[in-house]
What we know:
alpha+beta
Amino acid sequence: MTRDTFAYVWSYRVPGENADPFVRLYGPDGEWVELFRQGEGYLETRLYRSADDAERYLTVDRWESESAFRRFREKFAEEYGRLDRLGEGLTSEEKPLGEFFQIGGPTVG
Length: 109
């Protein structure tokens, strides 16, 4: 049985003076990725900076399935909250853009 790859996407505004600490926290070697790696079904996190607005960033967290993501959130709720509060101090805006399923391409299963 295959499952649809699930992605959770966030948008951030990061003042220039917070860019480096933000990238360290949310980037490929950051604390968020370290936490996510503890969750079964975690695939990867991608961090993007806008090509035309240096203060705008996106994160795309990919999981094998929506249920894997939900189990992670439940199991690691306390740690997730701690990192979320830490990140809020680095951003002027933070908002979820949504939850998405991959269409086409390889599936996990």
